[in-house]
Amino acid sequence: MSLQVLNPTSEEVIEERSLAKRLSTLEGATVGFISNGKEGTDRFFSSLTGVLYEQFSVAEVVLTTKSNYSAPADQTLIDEARDWHAVVTGVGD
Amino acid sequence: MQLQSTSYDLTDSADIQEFFHSRGWTDGFPIVPPTPELVQNCLEWVGMSADQLIGVEPVKERAIVVEKLAINAIMAGCLPVHFPIVVAAWNAMLQPQFLLHGATASTGGCAVLSILNGPIRLEIEAKAEFDVLGNGARATSVIGRALRLGLINILNVSPGAIDRSTLGHPGKISYCFAEDEEGTNWQSLAQSRGIPEQVSAITVVASGAPRQIMNEWTSVPEEILDTYVAEIRANMLNYSIWAGDYVIVIPKQHRDYLEAAGWSKADVAQYIYENARVKRSEWGQVGKQAVVRDKGDVTYNALMEPKNLLVLAAGGPAGGFGAIIPPWLGTKSRAVTMAIGACVNCES
């Protein structure tokens, strides 16, 4: 005797998204950092900023911070990021 | 409306358990096989179609539909009569101020505490006396488990997947209890949060594990509450200093003294608001001198306002044992109370 049972997972088909086109060089680029807001990002992103200017000759580094580290970035921040050539985002704890 | 979930034909009970365990679809305990008939019974009880949308989790952009909630509720051991509460709890968890993704993904390891109020408690025998924070009632055990299984299966909140908790706590298996409304003259939690009398409701809170206190040596309200305050202060120093929605569970033995002295829940909340405070310099006493910096004289309140204390009457009839249940982390997630059976953003 068999029993019919149902799948408890979402089963939602996840839309595949491709990665943004890679930059061939960072020279002259504007690079934005989106900090999750935790203290650990301060020194880490500050150090990376120095590396970007000194070793990769970027034009500008923009440092931003999410308003809530447990929530997605605000739309205004996402809109601001559209003007950057590259974004670095990550968790600092 | 036909059920849309993929179905499987399995041969016996052991097969079913291993089929679900091996796919990561359980919490490690055996499940009730979610057959189409049992799932349909839940849907009929709430009068909802299988594809009714309860909400969308915004980070994963994942739709939460009733059919999936029913499957997980059956797996957890729910009866149809429990299912309206599961639906209401998901409604509450999906409100933006609850911040469901953060509360279920954080290394901080909180769980979703759900608290029942109103007449439905009696209908489902959700007792709020002996072992109220443990295995006090079948109804609360299975409802809390249904919420966790739904998180695991619908939103991938499994340990090491979305759930990144360093430790977690036992409430991640099931964390639901009711208020002992018959054992107190106090206003219920739901009423104090704006729900009309005689309307059943559920309150969800992103919460750490309960921290038990004991004081059986006084009948003075201030002295009783000082023990709760001390535990909140300890939590502020040892865990998180930030103000948030704290829950305190006051058993009958303490309530009898408080109520006899004319103290209401609002009076309790006011006292704790005024006294549950620490100075940042006190971090130095618990090994956190490194983060005191030049702010040692700054005072931190456990509560932004007295109304941020969720005061609950619950627990067995004897014993001076209460509990504080701390918030996950400050005000990142706020407690949400939702009427059971209410329709949020539904089309008429």
What does this structure look like?
The complex is a heterodimer of chains A (93) and B (348). Chain A has a 3-stranded parallel sheet, with helices on one face. Chain A is α/β, with parallel strands linked by helices. In chain A, 26% of the residues lie in helices and 23% in strands. The longest helix of chain A has 17 residues, at 40-56. Chain A has a domain at 30-65 and 74-90. The model of chain A has no long low-confidence stretch (mean pLDDT 90). By secondary structure, chain B is α+β, with helices and mostly antiparallel strands. Chain B folds into 2 domains: 13-205 and 333-341, no CATH class; 209-325, hypothetical protein PF0899 fold. Chain B has helices at residues 13-22, 36-46, 66-76, 83-93, 100-105, 120-123, 138-155, 189-192, 221-238, 252-260, 265-275, and strands at 7-10, 53-57, 62-65, 111-117, 176-178, 201-207, 211-214, 246-250, 277-279, 299-301, 309-313, 321-325, 336-339. Chain B has a 4-stranded mixed sheet. In chain B, strand 2 and strand 3 (62-65) form a beta hairpin. The model of chain B has no long low-confidence stretch (mean pLDDT 96). Chain A binds chain B through residues 1-12, 68, 70-72, 93, and chain B through 3-12, 16, 19-20, 25, 33-36, 39, 58-59, 62-63, 68, 71-72, 75, 99, 101-103, 105-107, 149, 153-156, 329, 332-333.
